[in-house]
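Slide 14.
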Amino acid sequence: MDAGAGTGAAVAASQEQGPQLRPDMTLSEKADAVEEHMLQQLNRAVAKSVLYVSGDVDPTTYRPKPLEPGQLALMGDDPRLKKMPSKPTLIDFFKYRLTASQQHLLQSANLAMKAGHDEKIILACLLHDIGVAGFIRSDHGYWGAQLVEPYVTEEVSWAIRAHQALRFYADESVGYAYPEAYVRWFGADYVPEPYIQEEYKRAREHKWYMTGRLITVNDLYSFDPGVVVTIDQFEDIIGRNFKQPEEGLGFDNSPVAHMWRTIIWPNKFL
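Slide 15: predicted structure.
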């Protein structure tokens, strides 16, 4: 038996046996082992982007696992994920790609709706943390604003970007206090980075300041787990205020189409 055949037999045996889990493994290690087993069954290799692993490993030393003999790299739909429609809409992304933390977005938008705010505020609340729920957490206000910029008004995208800084600063005129959750999460002595401080100063003097501020007012940090809001509740508001491309998000040749495609296919090899 040649080396390639031996490797192939070992892979096949591993597929039949299931993931190799040991009692001394951490939950993270067990999750990695299960994922590795699933990928072996697919006979597709996934090389995670460095953003996925930075911190867990030193990115300057990270090397993706090489392909096994006869193994192919994943270059399309990941069978582990729900398949997206060929022309995906914003609602499709809520249903098939955004994490369960989208309830935070839905309940924030629901709160804005109950408060009688106009549709631009409701839409801004619905989308303000889309970066966290579906793309990149760090600097999520900037990523989220960029993601939706071609499809919403300039005011809405500005407000989503601005809330990144505004949330760290109280405004008594609208009843917004510094969130107690931030004290628990970041510590009582946390001070925002200088770029956030400068962003706040610019936003405070901007003509759309209050639009961004109202996102923070309706930004629930302790939303009610007993209340479940669905994206379908906002279908009409989205229809009137979100410029859904006919080709589908990710396929309209917009400056951000590649970002939507990355959410569709987060594990493509290249």
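Speaker note: The longest strand covers residues 44-45.
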